[in-house]
Amino acid sequence: MAPDSTSQSASSPPTRRLPLWEFVALTAMLMALNALAIDIMLPALPQMGADFQVREENDRQLIIVSYMLGFGVSQLFYGPLTDRFGRRSVLFVSLFFYVVAAIMCVYAPTFELLIWARAFMGASAGGSRVIAVSAARDLYAGRQMAKVMSLVMIVFMSAPIVAPFFGQLMLKVMTWHGIFWVLAVFGVIMFLWVLLRLPETLPKERRVPLNLPTMFGNYLKVIKTREALGYTIASGFLFGGLMSYISASEQLYHEVYDTGDWFALWFAGAAVAMSVSNLINSRLVERLGMRLISHAALIAFVVISITHAVIAMQGPVPFALFYTLVILAFFCIGFQGPNYNAIAMEPLGALAGSGAALIGFASSFVSASIGGLVARQFDGTVTPIFIGHAIVGSLALITIFITERGQLMKPHHHTDP
């Protein structure tokens, strides 16, 4: 697997490369550590709430939101660390503490300590996300990176498809504690896979010093990069909508629509929709470009979300209509994530770690904050969630409109030829 000529310096020594299929699979599974830690928990939220005697049902959402907050903040630190020490060594530390945190959740004596353990677990998982994106940027650039990330997302999206099923099945034979043991085992497997197979993708001569001035200086450079800043903010808004849906999904499907044991199946449908659009994106992005695809998808998402919000404000939404609009909205999201990442990362080069960290911060901490705020408005109807989607989608569109100086869906002369 040859590196992209724009992303690897000529002086870099040759290193062993994974086959493309294995790099995609490994990268996707590293990112799936995060998705599994969220989605496999969803069927267990009522049982966990009952065991800890949580009085306010919306407080159960904190099991998801706290994880995402820890996941987001930690990435700001992983970025400079991985740019200084390389990808492998930092990833080993991240995976080790992920396993430790999963075990801490098993033995948490109170709901408050469980929330803190979940935040620590999210903070540990932050490294896997930063390093997965950084390693991809080490080897690829531009539309080629967008294609690779789309392939990664296809594999990665299998996690939210199957995770709720596994969580529901496990709850039939064990308590929610067993789910955390499964996550710990998965963390160990990933540790061994990285140890045995993943080469270092950042040569020593391309590493940058680690100190506070350098760290803040690197983030300042990222922030001053128009595309990086704009698409990072847009990602925060867009995935805020996604997080509000995930955080409130158990209540939406159990309390509003009473789907019972079918919850996992209905939840998986949205992930399937995103996987399909990721696959289509991987086939089209090199020909049509990142901006044309992602901007058109964002406009469609805004229209769908506004339509859903208006319908919801008129009264109860029939399940068939609710679910159709959810599938269409998630189909649109699948065209945006990989392309936003690639557009934001393209001009960053040697700052790939810091760039991946800042983008990860926006798409997790910021989105968890926004999503948590929206999900907390749940009132027994779908209305607050989809009014929230309409608002954050519109804000994302305005952000990208400003970033692109009003030129939507047009190629960029540097990053999107």
Give the rounded overall mean pLDDT: 84
Largest sheet: none
Instruction: Tally the helices.
Output: 16
What is the CATH H-level superfamily?
Answer: MFS general substrate transporter like domains
Round the Cα radius of gyration to an integer and report it. Answer: 20 Å
CATH class: Mainly Alpha
Beginning-to-end CA distance, first to last residue? 23 Å
Number of domains: 1
> From the 3D coordinates, which CATH architecture would you assign?
Up-down Bundle
Task: Describe the overall structure.
This protein is mainly α and 417 residues long. It has one domain: MFS general substrate transporter like domains (Growth Hormone, Chain: A, Up-down Bundle), CATH 1.20.1250. Helix content is 75%, strand content 0%. The chain is built from 16 helices and no strands. α6 runs antiparallel to α14, α7 runs antiparallel to α11 and α11 runs parallel beside α13. The protein is globular, with a radius of gyration of 20 Å.
